[in-house]
Amino acid sequence: MTALPLLDAEAMASFVARGFLRMDAVVPDDINAAFLAEMGDIAPPVPGQKLLWTYFEMMARAGVPEVAAGTPLAEVYPQGSALARLLELPVLAGAVRSLVGAAPVFDHHFLHVTFPPAYHEAGGGENVSQHLHQDSTIDPRRAFDIQIMYYPHEVTRDMGGTRFLPGSHLRKVSEAAIARYQNIRGQQHMACKAGTLLFIHSGIWHGGGVNLSDRTRTMFKIRINPSQSQVRQFDVSTLVPQAAQRPIFYLKAPPPHSVEQILMTPEPWFENDTGRLEFLGRIKLWRYLTGDATYDADYWLTRVENRADA
Amino acid sequence: MRRQQVLVLYLANSALDSAVVGWSVYDGTGATRRMAGDEETPPYGNGLDALKDGWRLFQASQLLPHARGEEFDLAYLKYEFFFEKLVEVAP
User: Fold this and answer.
1) Looking at the complex, does the CB of residue B73 fall below 8 Å from at least one CB of chain A?
2) Where in chain A is the domain with CATH 2.60.120.620?
3) Is there a contact between A15 and A234 (Cβ–Cβ < 8 Å)?
4) Across the interface, do A163 and B20 touch by the CB < 8 Å criterion?
5) Pairing of strands A163-164, B2-11
6) Are A10 and A98 in contact (CB under 8 A)?
7) ipTM score here?
8) Model pTM above 0.90
9) From 2.60.120.620, 3.40.50.720, 3.40.50.300, 3.30.1490.20, which CATH number describes the A9-225 domain?
């Protein structure tokens, strides 16, 4: 076991079930301040200037390097830079190691800024939220990438923090094909303190919010690919073996807290029938990450894998 | 003149009186501008309540058999119901 603070079994199960892990205010203020200083000031709104041009100017000035996709993550940011220091934080490095394994690879990064109404008025554009989407393209893999979303300053609800749908990560959809869905029960909006990190499975449905405040909202995203095994990279010493399957349906009391209970907790938006298929998908992902091809929770896969007729 | 308002409800199963799990509103009158993430509580508890409030159902998603080998695959929300209202607006 490494010295990194790896995720424990319950945190991993929560990620498997919900597709995200949120760590509030874990990045020290000096790194947050250094990051914002390296990004530079964002120019005030200019009448008649399209917001896209303001964005290009901001990206050109910001201290974010252009980096080739496929670069080892450890080589992406200059030593001593705010982003290098961010990635060296044990809490972040331990989560990355737990989720995507050793020697992860950089995919891409982006400086996401939502602008207050004055910028849209100056540029003649409409101030609206981003459509719901899943990043990249249809991704049928069992392996997965993660995206780290870093919030270097406080984000209030009216600043248009990232909106995401817990538990949506196992659905195989095609990017903005889900844009039709405006609101889904259980959706969350990132309102957070400075230095908050959100780790999301690459399949999570999400979108930027609309900024109705008078301040810009900055979020930095890094997408990371595994290059080696994702199996049993978390703190497996915290895994509690199941002695037997839990009783199901007919229960006289709420079941105790456990990995199984985490995996079998539905989201508010689950449909009656496909919610059960979501459970099957979670169990399959847990089998993958634990390297236990026989694992089951609440008998869902055991039942459909029964080959008594063979 | 008349303009169309469209309400899309995503329900928990194929019954119109099942619970709303997702929703979208597009307002052709221009009186409101709805967008992603703008509401936390659904406008109706279920699809039948929308009918009672004057929305006219004009499309419902089909129930399709599950392709062999893809029985457990999940993608888009399954129970989609489109409603409309026709609203008089000043010319």
Assistant:
1) yes
2) 9-225
3) no
4) no
5) unpaired
6) no
7) 0.98
8) yes
9) 2.60.120.620
